[in-house]
Amino acid sequence: MFKKWRGFFILSRPVNVVISFLSILVAITICGWSTWESVLLACLTGAFITVAANAINDVYDLEIDRINRPKRPLPSGVVSPREAFVFSIVFFILGVTSSALINTETLIIALIFSVLLYLYSSTFKRRVLIGNFTVSLATAFAFIFGGAAVGHIENAFFPAIFAFLMHFGREIIKDMEDVKGDAKDGAQTLPIRFGNRVAQVLTTILLMALIVITQLPYILHIYGVWYLILVNLGVNTVLIFCIISMWKKPVRSNFRILSALLKADMLIGLAAIYAGRF
């Protein structure tokens, strides 16, 4: 039984869940605080929908993961596809229900992105850039959702852009990492359709654009000097390293490392945004 529950825990991708929870918490903090009940419900909504999206993604990626990630809960047989599907639907329902307890805007956002994230796994992921765009947009809207929860969406503008660009770049790196399994499954990702070089060029453009845009909130006096220090030393140095490393060592093992680095870099970015408000 312990092995089964551990499988569900791994299936949820807890690091992604924590990032989603913190993204909404930071969004609420920078947009304007609300009641504890609304804050908790908003953060839980993000966490629940992230769990659901991760689980349904593994269901549809089972054949790919048999090649790319054979130790994941489904290809290893710890959790069955049916169990993972039910697990996902339960958490989608929990996410939509908790969003409905906040306000109408958060309910609409939660419903739209629950459907989009399901379609991402079932259909969009296997089409050139559409899947990358969808999941990046969903991540960006975690900040918009947080702003909607407290009635100040406009303050979530820059964090949403940052999240979109970083996730878009990371998604393409993940596609380069997963070429072997994706190709066998018939997926038409960017590196499969046009080659790794095109994927590397687009990733470089996205991450370089992010580096430039991260300077704007300080220039426009939206965030303070601590933001500038943290975002350049903690975030942008990692982005530059990832760009250089991606070109110097374009192999699957390195793409996996870079994907993990970018995920960790998101947490530093959240810290920079939070610090910049003081």
CATH topology: Tetracycline Repressor, domain 2
CA radius of gyration is 18 Å
Mean pLDDT level: 91
Q: Name the CATH architecture.
A: Orthogonal Bundle
**Level-1 CATH class name:** Mainly Alpha
Low-confidence runs: none
- Helix count? 14
Q: Biggest sheet, in brief?
A: none
Number of spatially distinct domains: 1
Give the CATH H-level superfamily.
Answer: UbiA prenyltransferase
N→C terminal distance: 47 Å
Order of helices and strands: HHHHHHHHHHHHHH
Q: Which secondary-structure class do the elements indicate?
A: mainly alpha
Descriptive account of the structure:
- By secondary structure, the protein is mainly α.
- The chain has one domain: Tetracycline Repressor, domain 2 (Orthogonal Bundle).
- The protein has 14 helices and no strands.
- It has helices at 2-11, 14-31, 36-60, 62-68, 81-100, 104-122, 130-150, 157-177, 179-184, 190-194, 196-213, 216-219, 225-248, 252-275.
- The protein is globular.
- The model has no long low-confidence stretch (mean pLDDT 91).
